[in-house]
Amino acid sequence: MDIFFTSSFPVLCQDSRDHNYTTLCADNQTLNSTSPSLVNPPAFGMSYFTMTLGALSNLTALVILAHSYARFRRRAKVPFLLLASTLLLSDLAGHLITGALALHLHLERVKHHGQAVEVEPPRIYCKLFGACMVFFGLCPLLLGSVMAVERCIGITQPLLHSTVVTMTRVRLSVLLITSMALTLAGLPLLNVGNYKPQFPGTWCFLPVNGPLSIADVSLTLAFSILGLVTLTVSLVSNTLSGLKLLQARIKDGCVKTSAARRHGSFSSSSLHSLDVEMMTQLAVITVVSCVCWSPFLIYILMSVSRFYEGVSRPKHQCEKLLLLALRLASWNQILDPWVYILLRRAVLRRVLQLLQPDRAMYTQSSSYRDSHRKTIS
Length: 377
Description:
Elements: H1 4-7, E1 38-39, H2 44-71, H3 78-113, E2 116-117, H4 123-156, H5 158-164, H6 167-186, E3 196-198, E4 203-205, H7 214-253, H8 258-309, H9 315-330, H10 332-342, H11 345-355, H12 357-376
Antiparallel strand pairs: 1-2, 3-4
Helix pairs in contact: 2-3, 2-10, 3-4, 3-6, 3-10, 4-5, 4-6, 4-7, 4-8, 7-8, 8-9, 8-10, 8-12, 11-12
């Protein structure tokens, strides 16, 4: 889900007390105004910049992953690369599709009214927009958790990984994730629940504030809880993998004899460097996802809980909090590709050379000997 454009129109969030736009909130309060609802023209330049930046970042990361796939075609990294490529494709599609939908809404508003007037989008348009938001929001979260589980199995149970994690099963997992996200996103299109415009009228989503039907509550809670569960699974899996790598590193450090270094340490050094590269990428992706997505998912959960408890909050405060949480979540799709651009093994090795020159030279020579041995065999 990519709503970076909302962060490009901060003027739409200002002076909302002068607006006559009705947004569902906990107290279902309508702000009164004696004049038409006008706001300052949106800053399209920033929107174009963030949209272009996100698209170029994802395309660059996809090229890097394609090059890595050609290098590691027969190694255990291939399932990880397939899942990572699917994640970036999902980010890229969500970035462009939701961005184009929102940008079209802004352009039509300015075209017909001459100014940025707050009006609700057509019902069908809003349903399509909301479905894209839910689908492209869930896919990266689900894929990230599956990537974490795959690496956890590969690091903690390498023999089980070679027999259980096959390319066929990875492709089936991707298909299952897509089907799950598509089902949840498509239910409101079948009149099970609904999508509604959200403040400041630039995006549509499942109703979060105000009076909610049972279907709306079910879908909203499903989205929020499923997202939080995926983040939890990623955190647990990455923690277990990190502890296993740390244990292996300590064990290798205890090997003192030169014979042990030649016969054991040097092949495991290459293996660990590959695992460390993937784990570093996964750890950063998980941190980025948690920081970007947690406020939005937790706010949705709290809003539904407040509705059932009968607790009301000021309308303007609800709108600003939801929009702020969405802006933070939108940066996830822009930051994800930079993990693969910056945290490659070549970049990590160069950083290691700056920090520990002697150890970096040993690791690089070990990796070369290992790759040379594989080429000969």
